[in-house]
Design goal:
The chain is an alpha/beta fold. The protein is about 40% helix and about 15% strand. The protein is built from 6 helices and 4 strands. A 4-stranded parallel β-sheet has the order 2-1-3-4, sandwiched between helices. It is globular and about 50 Å long.
């Protein structure tokens, strides 16, 4: 647990690293094989994983920065849940990763994971049904809800 620099300071929202660590702790608790697909532009994520999450293997990228699909598929283990942590804003890499994981579902159990919101997944180019098929998992410190009780609460607090 992080210590606060001020005695009477309480952090109500966990830091990004606390949230990320929780996701990795969950995947390890499920005895998951964790594979990371991270583009070169996400250097902070690469450094975080290398420094804090030992045992995570990175999928190889091509010389042009694209995903080496054959390498990714080779890193997936049958008979075990494979968590593929995808961190990229590159639409082509997102699509290649999703296609590779859908193809791999025939022989492996796979689940797609993102560590933070990814606006690329909200575009028309990405089929929402495929994200559902891959059981997209992502951490959130807030909970959006359209349930009646939540809507009443929101209406009364705005």
């Amino acid at each position: 647990m992080l210590t606060n620099p001020i005695d009477n300071l309480y952090q109500a929202i966990p830091s990004n690293d606390v949230v990320r660590n929780s996701v990795f702790d969950y995947m390890r608790a499920k005895n998951g094989n964790i594979v990371a697909v991270v583009d070169k532009k996400k250097e902070s994520v690469i450094n975080y994983i290398k420094q804090n999450q030992k045992g995570v293997v990175f999928a190889t990228l091509t010389e042009t920065g694209g995903l080496d699909v054959a390498n990714l598929k080779g890193l997936l283990l049958p008979g075990r849940i494979n968590y593929v942590v995808m961190e990229t804003g590159n639409t082509a890499m997102v699509k290649a990763t999703i296609k590779a994981l859908l193809d791999s579902q025939k022989t492996c159990q796979v689940q797609l994971v993102i560590l933070e919101p990814n606006s690329t997944l909200d575009t028309d180019e990405i089929n929402f049904d495929n994200l559902v098929k891959l059981n997209l998992m992502y951490p959130s410190v807030t909970r959006e809800s359209s349930e009646a009780g939540a809507l009443i609460f929101k209406k009364n607090t705005v």
